[in-house]
Amino acid sequence: EIGKWTEEKGLEIEDDSRIKFLGNAPVRPMGVANSLNAEHLKLGVTENPPFAARIPNCTGHSCWEGICPDVVKNLSTALNFTYEFVEPYDKEFGRFDPGTHTWNGLIGDMLSQRTDMVTMDLSVGVQRKQYIDFTVSFMDSGISLAIKGESGKSDIFFFMSPFGYSVWCMIAVVFMLMGIILNLISKISPYGSHGKKIHAMQVCKCEGCEERRLVKQQLKIKFKDHIQSECLVDRMVEDAEDETMTFYNSLWVAGAGLVGQGTAALPASPSGRFLLFIWWFFILLIISMYTANLTAFMTLDKIGITVSSAKDLLKQNQKKYEWGIIEGSFVESLLINNVDTDFKKLVDGAVKIKTVEEGNNRVHQGGFVFLDESPFLSYNLLGSCGIFQVGGEIQPFDYGFGLPKSSPYTELMNTQIIKYRELGFFDELWIKWDKTPADGCENNHEVGADEVLQMSTVQGIFLLLALGLVISFALILLETVMATAQDGYDHQHRTFWSKLVRRVKLKYEDFSTEWFVFSRPHKASANGDNYLKLDSLDKFASSEVKGGTNHGV
Questions:
Q1: Which of 21, 115, 223, 465 has the highest CB neighbour count under 10 A?
Q2: How far is CA 29 from CA 1, 18, 210, in A?
Q3: By three-state DSSP, how is residue 52 classified?
Q4: Residue 392, phi-psi category: left (phi > 0), alpha (psi -120 to 50), beta (remainder)
Q5: Predicted local distance difference test score (pLDDT) of residue 428
Q6: CA 174 to chain centre
Q7: What is the DSSP letter of 91?
Q8: Alpha carbon of 170 to those of 117, 164, 218, 274, 454: distances in Å?
Q9: Radius of gyration, alpha carbons of the chain
Q10: Kind of pairing between the strands at 322-326 and 351-353
Q11: Cβ neighbour number for residue 221 with a 10 Å cutoff
């Protein structure tokens, strides 16, 4: 017993000669410690460029360079301590032996008190955290794939690759539906090119329209099949100027939108225009996703790589690529413990290699994929113009320094490391040590994934289109109400509801006599001798009723 603590007096130390304060100070430091008081630390380090490497032709405990030695140098100045580097006998980071429950390498040295701290890029993991503490992260990392490019194989249907078959089928179905629905809206809407003209012909009281309705009833033909001119050339000109939303034109408008083009024929009603706007927005999103994914496919096809992610290795019909993992490495441990069983299958089917150099050599030979921590793949692939990193990073994790449990140095180190991260110090160190050799090759050879987009990915865009369709039909109801309110009235149709009922009946008549009736053009007359002279349909939309009563459209 060297002291006691009471509520009245707090901590009372009777004999502090046996207490070791930071830096072996003889007196208890006041307040929060911010210095190690020139304490000498033994720091674990091992060869692992660019984080640490021995300086050539140098002897002694300080003959190390790299990212970690530079960090230690700055920490020693900021926290006032001296140090020496100690390398483990086996030059390992640390592997756990489940039989003896012991660690080797850097972690084993620290647990056996041969070193005070591990100042290397120690990957933070649950198993290690059970035995040691870590500082806050000084760098982020993950698992990447390194692969050698080959000559690409041509595929005449490469342009189909970005989307799955289900997506292509849905686009084709939606395209046909859009043509049908645009045509339908033109017929149903009172402001559509078809709807407003037919309604005008149905209610107009002029002599010409009375004759048209009589001929239509007698010959059972459509209004549009009345011949307005006997000259075939004139009739061709009239047809060429027709920009109504027929089914053909509606399909053409929908198809032109697929390739980002417009047409002369466009919907006249607000509901039709709103739906066309939603269709164009749908196409914009589809084209953007298609273009982005096609770029990734063309890049991978050019360099002859058929693997774009770790899981693609398991899907090979013919095993074109073998893959390897460093035996006993942190990467192997992460994949085994992942909740996704496919990653465990990757480990089971992997070639177990001993060192990073062995993995790199096999990658250069071709037909081999090396799974390792992304910073090391990036560093070791410098100057290798035919080697690529594919698929991005999987299973992200952090790098930190290791300390014994409840170490008095932890908080001091954390404070400085956080400060360095905020200042961008570690980014500058990476730029300093991760240099590209002067051989014309780029720093990193990263190729994104080329995942085929399925319906599960793009279904939200189709739901947006469906929502636009619902809103369009709701607008048709509003248009009908507005058109009914604008309709003229007579002794039979004086109230809003009577005019609305008339519109509904006339629309049913239009449906039954115009939509699905197949007729040929006729030259018709009321008495069978003289041809009827029919004015253009647009004229009837503004025709006046006999007696001065105006029936609005």
A1: 115
A2: 20, 15, 109
A3: strand
A4: left
A5: 93
A6: 23
A7: -
A8: 60, 10, 45, 21, 11
A9: 40
A10: parallel
A11: 20
Residue range 342-361, pLDDT digits in tens: 999 999 999 999 888 888 88
Q: Which residues pair with 326 in a beta bridge?
A: 353
Question: Tell me, what DSSP letter sits at residue 98?
Answer: T
Q: What angle do CA 434, 436, 440 make, to 5 degrees?
A: 165
Expressed in percent and rounded to 5, the helix, strand and coil fractions of the chain are 45, 15, 40
CB 270 within 8 A of CB 479: yes
Structure tokens at 70: 């530079």
DSSP assignment of 271-306: HHHHHHHHHHHHHHHHHHHHHHHHHHHHHHHHTT--
CA nearest to 190, candidates 503, 498, 469: 503
The token pair at 427 is 């980014």
How far is the C-alpha of 175 from the C-alpha of 168, rounded, in Å?
11
**Which candidate, 316, 291, 294, 292, places its Cα nearest to that of 306?**
316
Average pLDDT over residues 60-86: 92
390 and 377 Cβ atoms separated by less than 8 Å: no
User: Are residues 196 and 204 in contact, defined by beta-carbon separation less than 8 angstroms?
Assistant: no
Token pair, residue 351, equals 């070639």
> d(Cα 151, Cα 304) in Å, to the nearest integer?
5
Euclidean distance between CA atoms 228 and 180, whole angstroms: 28
> Element (H or E) spanning 390, and its range?
strand 387-403
pTM assigned to the model: 0.54
Cβ atoms of 326 and 356 within 8 Å: the answer is yes
The secondary element (H helix, E strand) that includes residue 176 is helix 165-188
The answer to whether the CB of 429 falls within 8 A of the CB of 159 is: no
- The stretch 474-481 carries a mean pLDDT of 89
Torsion of CA 460, 461, 467, 468, to 10 degrees: 170
Output 116 or 487, whichever has higher pLDDT: 116
CA dist 373 and 335 (Å) reads 12
**CA atoms of 509 and 503, how far apart (whole Å):** 10
> Tokens representing 273?
């225009």
